[in-house]
Design a protein that fits this description.
Blueprint lengths: L1 H31 L8 E9 L6 E4 L4 E5 L5 E5 L4 H13 L8 E2 L13 E8 L3 E7 L6 H26 L2
Parallel strand pairs: 5-7
Antiparallel strand pairs: 1-2, 1-6, 2-3, 3-4, 6-7
Length: 170
């Protein structure tokens, strides 16, 4: 019995390593996906501007989009993001570790309603959870957080701009 075990020891070791690698790989992939599936992603709200009233905004649930153009005229459009846009936003937000970002990304003691500093608000709505991030453009704290928040803001903005271009060109 012991001699048979010694002969098969390398085979048993190989199988054990494969099983452990498979289980480990599964959990690494699950961690990268974030705590929520893309099918749980309901909508995104994005607002930006100065002061206490953020006139510039987009709501993917309603499709309402408004912003001040170069001439300070309010432009109002209505369009919705496509399903692939929502999946893309969800997956990129998870790559950027959305759930680890602080809710407020601002310098200590900063006035969140300042008329001089550009403020972005992003709200990711999932079936059972909502993540709201307020990002002040002058944030000079942790560079990793600033870089991640800036990348997330640019991602949301470019996705909305792409969808608006598609809507206005048809």
């Amino acid at each position: 019995m012991i001699s048979a075990f010694k002969k098969n020891w390398s085979l048993i070791s190989i199988i054990a390593v494969i099983v452990i690698a498979g289980i480990g790989g599964y959990y690494v992939i699950r961690l990268k996906q974030g705590p929520y599936r893309s099918s749980d992603f309901v909508s995104i709200q994005y607002s930006w501007g100065l002061g206490d009233t953020l006139v510039n905004s987009y709501n993917s649930a309603t499709g309402h989009y408004q912003y001040l153009n170069n001439k300070d005229s309010l432009v109002v459009n209505k369009f919705k993001l496509r399903t692939h846009n929502m999946i893309y936003l969800h997956s990129k937000a998870n790559e950027l570790n959305l759930w680890t970002l602080p809710d407020v990304i601002a310098n200590r003691g900063a006035d969140l309603k300042s008329n001089k500093i550009l403020r972005y608000e992003m709200v990711f709505n999932y079936v059972n959870k909502t993540k709201k991030i307020i990002f002040m453009s002058d944030y000079d704290g942790d560079p990793q957080i600033a870089q991640t928040a800036s990348a997330l803001q640019k991602l949301v903005e470019s996705t909305i701009t792409e969808a608006e271009d598609r809507y206005t060109n048809h």
